[in-house]
Amino acid sequence: MLDLVIEASALAFHPYVLMYVMLGVLLGITLGAIPGLSGDMAIALLLPFVFFLEPAMAMGLLVGIYKGGLFGGSIAAISFGVPGTPGAAATSIDGYQAKLKGKPSKALHTALYSSVIGDTTSDLVLIFIAVPLAAVALSFGPIEFFALYAFSLMLIAALSQGMVAKGLAVAAIGILLAMIGRDPITGSARLTFGMPGLSGGLSLIPVLIGIFAISEVVVQGAKLWRRKVDKLMDDVAEQASLLQGYDIRKDQLSWVEFKSTLKATYIGAAVGTFIGALPGAGQSLAAFMSYGLAQRFSRKPEEFGKGSLEGIASAESGNSATAGSTFIPLFAFGIPGSATAALFGAAFILMGMTPGPSLLNDNTEIIYALFFTLIFANLVNLVLGKVLLPYYSRIAMIQPGYLIPAVFILAIVGTYAANNSVVDVWVLLFAGVLGVTLRLLKFPLAPLVLGFIIGPGAERALRQSMIMGGGDWWVLVSSPIAIGFYVAAVVLILLFTFALRAKK
Amino acid sequence: MNRTMVRELLSVALMLSLGVAGLLHIQYGNWRVAPLVPSYIMPQTAYYFLIASGVWVLAMLGLEARRRRQGQGADEGPAQDLLAIGLASGLMLGGAVVYFWMVLNLGLIVSTYLYNAVLIAVLAPGARLKSILLVPVLVAAAVWVLFIQMIGITLPPSLLF
């Protein structure tokens, strides 16, 4: 064990890996601070480059972007009342009010510290829970695995934006996209519609970049075209005038104030870690639930919504505490519980590692190095965030009209570069059109990605189960563990449906 | 009929048409027969889910319409500007097809410069001519360094560079 820790730490603390972590955090905070651009989009765009990096370096870069992006979202939320990422929506409630009251520095520092505490708690839970859970998963057969896949799909479909039917439909579309290509058992071509280019199936990179990045960029482009940005810039100028006569010396977060936010931070860390481990629940739900609970247990609940530092701490800690635990289902069972985990799962696959219980056994050294990187990235996030905080709120004012074309071009050339494949570029544009259509019709996108990634595994488990049961569908409920998963899915869906209604 | 209702009806139409078309394709298409577990078992399950979800949304729409008639309806959210998204999709995704054709035939640097300049001219409000001409130079240079020098992607021989 000691040897393993030494080898993993040598890998994780290699100067190049550290450099990539710092670069990632810097990129993540910068992109997260710009409304409309998110860490997920940056991770999707960087997937083609994973091919060209050592696994530890690639993981360092992606982890850095993810963690930086989580905190970066709160900068725009506090500075302009515009959440940089969906997870920062709850932070903007009190964060923006605090800024309007002349406390932007206190608000930003509270967000930074609570984000790092929540994130670190979640990482520690991941480190200590993923390994034993993966050992349990090794005893699963196809019936249990199919139940687990169905459990994850049901949960992610039900909890993504609270639209169960649309979530299930879009997960089905994701599974259908994954079925394109050769049937793994009979070898015959399926759903290729006579196009030889599709017989190998759709590659992960163009589908993920198309669904996440291209569709987002097109929607942002449409907003720009309508000159909404002019209004945003006017608002920014108006808000800047509010800060005339602002004295930063009077706006320093004191130790007493920091201590007063700790209870809210711990509530957020606990709630976020739990919610993050559930497939589909997501950062936004974790932040709002943490905010609600912290308000209930606060000594000054009446200050929530009026610039309360406790409100900022709970929301930001809850949001960031999903960061580590969202990887628990991916590491233990091979099931990405969120869009970010799906992107990391794709990165693992691109590096030749299969997410799931065997991931830890087959790649012990690199996964333990990843654990070290997760913790180290929090430290980098804290230091870089602290040093660069005064400059970051200006980043949100960069005109997206100059950034979006560059992002779009990078997506196209990056997709081509991954496999030198022209077909991949057409798949990317098709996925972009699909993503825009689904966004317009208000379908959640995360279930589609989950369906696409776990589709082949779910099909394999289903067909193996059916063979075992002689073609009888009842075989799927013949295992107590499988029944447990189906019951748990129904209970959790009902529980969260009621919780979401109460929130509204 | 309000915009939300139209959007949801379009969603239902998408789900039902995809589900029904898929089942018809399974019924009449050329699928290889396999004992116990035919190769269409997973797609078929997905199509059933699509149809069931479509019916579910339709039922919810019926309930919502009834509630609205009784005066309990919720206020409508902000409307999506379909025209803006349609135009942006046309310009960016249609333009991307032209851009990639140009990359393969004219060259990566020239195509990147031209496409980036066009997008900035259309998307950046109040962009000055100097920015439209200079920013694409930086982007084209970054693309060249990243993809040609560092990664070394292979592109077919082109007319320019």
TrEMBL record, chain A:
<dbReference type="Pfam" id="PF01970">
    <property type="entry name" value="TctA"/>
</dbReference>
<feature type="transmembrane region" description="Helical">
    <location>
        <begin position="366"/>
        <end position="389"/>
    </location>
</feature>
<keyword id="KW-0472">Membrane</keyword>
<dbReference type="InterPro" id="IPR002823">
    <property type="entry name" value="DUF112_TM"/>
</dbReference>
<keyword id="KW-1133">Transmembrane helix</keyword>
<feature type="transmembrane region" description="Helical">
    <location>
        <begin position="163"/>
        <end position="181"/>
    </location>
</feature>
<feature type="transmembrane region" description="Helical">
    <location>
        <begin position="401"/>
        <end position="419"/>
    </location>
</feature>
<protein>
    <submittedName>
        <fullName>Tripartite tricarboxylate transporter permease</fullName>
    </submittedName>
</protein>
<feature type="transmembrane region" description="Helical">
    <location>
        <begin position="124"/>
        <end position="151"/>
    </location>
</feature>
<keyword id="KW-0812">Transmembrane</keyword>
<feature type="domain" description="DUF112">
    <location>
        <begin position="18"/>
        <end position="450"/>
    </location>
</feature>
<feature type="transmembrane region" description="Helical">
    <location>
        <begin position="201"/>
        <end position="219"/>
    </location>
</feature>
<feature type="transmembrane region" description="Helical">
    <location>
        <begin position="425"/>
        <end position="453"/>
    </location>
</feature>
<feature type="transmembrane region" description="Helical">
    <location>
        <begin position="330"/>
        <end position="354"/>
    </location>
</feature>
<feature type="transmembrane region" description="Helical">
    <location>
        <begin position="41"/>
        <end position="66"/>
    </location>
</feature>
<feature type="transmembrane region" description="Helical">
    <location>
        <begin position="12"/>
        <end position="34"/>
    </location>
</feature>
<feature type="transmembrane region" description="Helical">
    <location>
        <begin position="473"/>
        <end position="500"/>
    </location>
</feature>
TrEMBL record, chain B:
<feature type="transmembrane region" description="Helical">
    <location>
        <begin position="45"/>
        <end position="63"/>
    </location>
</feature>
<keyword id="KW-0812">Transmembrane</keyword>
<keyword id="KW-0472">Membrane</keyword>
<feature type="transmembrane region" description="Helical">
    <location>
        <begin position="83"/>
        <end position="102"/>
    </location>
</feature>
<protein>
    <submittedName>
        <fullName>Tripartite tricarboxylate transporter TctB family protein</fullName>
    </submittedName>
</protein>
<dbReference type="InterPro" id="IPR009936">
    <property type="entry name" value="DUF1468"/>
</dbReference>
<keyword id="KW-1133">Transmembrane helix</keyword>
<feature type="transmembrane region" description="Helical">
    <location>
        <begin position="133"/>
        <end position="155"/>
    </location>
</feature>
<feature type="domain" description="DUF1468">
    <location>
        <begin position="14"/>
        <end position="156"/>
    </location>
</feature>
<dbReference type="Pfam" id="PF07331">
    <property type="entry name" value="TctB"/>
</dbReference>
<feature type="transmembrane region" description="Helical">
    <location>
        <begin position="108"/>
        <end position="126"/>
    </location>
</feature>
